Amino acid sequence: MINAQGKTRIALGAVMLLSGTTLARAQDYQAEDIVITAAKRSESLQTVPISVSAIGGDALAERKITRADDLVSVVPNLQLSSIVGSNTPIFSLRGVSMFDYSLNQSSPVATYYDEVYKGNFAFLGVAMYDLERVEVLRGPQGTLYGKNTSGGAVNLISRAPKLGETEGNLNFGYGNYNRFDASGAINLPMSDVLAARVAFTVSRADGWFKNQTPGQPDMNGVREYGIRGSLLFAPSDSARFVLRASTSLQNPTNYGIYAQPADLHRAGLSKREIESNIGDIRRHARTWSVSLNGTVDVADGLALTSVTSWDKGNLRFKEDTDGTAERFVEITYTDRATQFAQDLRLTSEFAGPFNFILGGYYNREKVFNSNSPEYLLGFDFDGEPGLDEGDCLAGFILGCGFTNSFDQLKKSYAIYTDMSFEISDVVKLRGGLRYTHDKGRQDYHGSYAYAANGGFVTDVVPALSQAYSKNNLSGKIGVDFQIGDQLLYANYSRGYRANSFNAQAFFDPSELTVAKPEKINAYEIGAKTRFADRRATLNVAAFYYDYRNQQYVNVDPLIGTQVLVNLPKSRILGGEAEFTMAVSEALTLNSALGIIDAKVRKGIVGGVDVGGNRLPNAPKLTLSGGFDATLHEGDIGRIGLRGDVSYVSGQYFEVMNVSRLRQGGYALLSGSLNWTSADERWTAALWAKNLTNEFYFTSRVDLLAGFGYDYNHVSTPRTYGATVGVRF
Mean of the pLDDT values across residues 242-261? Predict the structure, then answer.
């Protein structure tokens, strides 16, 4: 058996081998040139002077990347916390993330679907199907995007309808844990100027967290579908409109919690076994979305783009927080949200030295949030028959349930511009400014206590309101040098994240707090290079962040109150390198490296000075590598082999840096054997992920602030299966 140290050495060795492979004999093949829209223009990835990773739709399918969670294994310095469940990831990019996991919050690493910002968790849903590509942008993006993105952006771009082409695909898959997948799409031209595309995905799987409580189902199941309809209207060469409407539903058995210490909470259970008393209460996540993207050429070299969107989402689940068959701690979460957004921008494509983007943005997000923690609700505290209000009063806060709720309304208005000026054929100056006005209200935030029988006990926090209003000016300045196929660039940018309301006020009015805005001063230098007759690309970047006023939940260890505060100062430095090589017509290699050193410089959490501690979700080292090899190509079609390895070094999930909660380094192996018929109509694949069945934690928290209970989410075990597909 290979131990953890051995797996780490294998992963490191594999990545070094992939990165250091010698060049094969020169031929007329080249590395793939990926076209992206990260900078709001269609450009080659190699000519965009920002740090961005891009993965095409075919590569996503080959690697079996069907959830946003899977992106962390292929994008350097991208991590996530799954503390609110699968498919609602909390991304960390270059160590920038959110450290309040309440459902009313929005991450500084933004998620976009087809240029539509999805801030609230309730909007995320099922989206990783029928994609053209995924783009991950690192660093502040306020001069390019309608909504502020201080830490970066994850862009999911779906396939748009095409004129004059009838085509489609249908795919089926089956895997362990009785997993069944079906997906497909069809493109239908309706006239010379009109085309439609409909895509869908359906997945079901049994839970892999085996529930040993009699009569209760296994946890961490899959039960979801998504459907998207798109309509393209292109009345002329100078006008194009795409209307999209989508909906999705997730209704699986909820995730399970791995409680520690194991000898107290998990006696007799293996690593992927659980005893839960509420496994039959399903997780419910429902989304609806409509958007209209339109572009019109208003003059030579000038295009006007409008992105109008409406979103609605409901997210509700009950968490067996204690991870046991007893009613020690259980929490019900409810999040209902609607959003309207309008992005309008004018983009130039002049042949001359000066070009610009000038945009205006409006976003209105309305949220209803409710949280209901229950503490030993099924225990008798007053010695009287039955479980009622008397038990809550006798044990308070034990023996009680608490519910808080509030309405939240946030509005954001912005004007932004991004400009460039060519000094010569080699040198280009870039800059941009953004003015943002944010305001928000949190109304009727109150809490009350109730008993095991549902009876009302007492109001704890009266219904109160709070508000904020903030203006901000941020921007970017940089220079880049294009010398043949080599691009060198240097940028300074300032990122901004608006105020946030605390959602965790249960026991005292003092918990109703508003965190100050976050700010990041980001410095970056980078290079994008091609060599070996354009068969190899190497993109590198180095950065330094001066991070101010990170928003964080501060828990009082004595009385359990929670307030939303700011860590005054942190600093993050590091870099990325991404390498791709077309070694031959039959073999392509890729590898990536991420390095981070992220530390708090000044801050107090829970009465403890955390200066010098490492930031959460910021491992010092991430590595990945892969190969795509053609084993045979002939009359029977193409047989290909895909292999991937990734490694993540040790990290913390909380800023206190509790040693027992540190996740050690781990390596993941995955691969697939693929067949495509000679006419490229039929496909089949055998695939596997986490081949070595690695067990690791995806989030860890000292939930009861030092009282001997650790709350953990654990990784998905080994999964494998087969897929077949047809194109028509």
Answer: 95
Return all residues near 62 (Cβ < 8 A) that are at least 6 apart: 628, 642, 672, 674, 685
Measured CA to CA, the distance from residue 523 to residue 519 in angstroms comes to 13
Q: What type of residue is 477?
A: I
Q: In the chain, what are the domain boundaries?
A: 4-421+444-474+492-727
Quote the CA–CA distance of 349 and 298 in Å, as a whole number. 12
pLDDT at 706: 57
Quote the strand ranges of 99-163, DSSP E: 109-113, 116-117, 131-138, 152-158
Q: 265 by DSSP, 3-state: which?
A: helix
pLDDT average, residue stretch 617-639: 96
pLDDT at 142: 87
With 80 as the cut, is the pLDDT of residue 704 above it? Answer: no
Burial category of 460 from C-beta neighbours within 10 Å (exposed 0-12, middle 13-18, buried 19 and up) = buried
List the one residue out of 581, 550, 580, 553 whose CA is nearest residue 566.
550
Q: CATH top-level class for 4-421+444-474+492-727?
A: mainly beta
Contact 430, 475 (CB under 8 A): no
- What span, in angstroms and rounded, lies between the C-alpha atoms of 375 and 331? 9
Residue written as token pair 């590898």: 591
Is the confidence at residue 681, as pLDDT, over 90? yes
CA distance 699 to 662: 10
Q: What is the dihedral of CA 10, 14, 16, 22, to 10 degrees?
A: 140
Angstrom distance (rounded) from CA 45 to CA 112? 18
Alpha-helical runs (H) found in 372-427: 389-395
- Which pair of structure tokens corresponds to residue 539? 């993109």
Distance CA 267, CA 289 (A): 45
pLDDT interval class at 127 (50, 70, 90): confident
Residue 682 token pair: 């039929």
Secondary structure E strands in 94-208: 109-113, 116-117, 131-138, 152-158, 167-175, 179-189, 194-205
- Each residue's pLDDT tens digit, 137-173: 999 988 887 788 889 999 999 999 999 989 999 999 9
Residue 188 has pLDDT above 90, yes or no: yes
State how far the Cα of 667 lies from the Cα of 237, in Å rounded to an integer. Answer: 50
Question: Has this prediction a pTM greater than 0.85?
Answer: yes
User: What distance in Å separates the CA atoms of residue 548 and residue 519, rounded to the nearest whole number?
Assistant: 5
Helix (H, G, I), strand (E, B) or coil at 266: coil
List C-alpha distances in Å: 617 to 72, 95, 595, 648, 651. 12, 6, 13, 11, 6
pLDDT for position 1:
42
Residue 201: the pLDDT is: 97
Query: CB–CB of 159/55 below 8 Å?
Result: no
Is 290 within 8 Å of 259 (Cβ atoms)? no
Query: What value, to the nearest 5°, has the Cα angle with vertex 164 and ends 163 and 166?
Result: 105
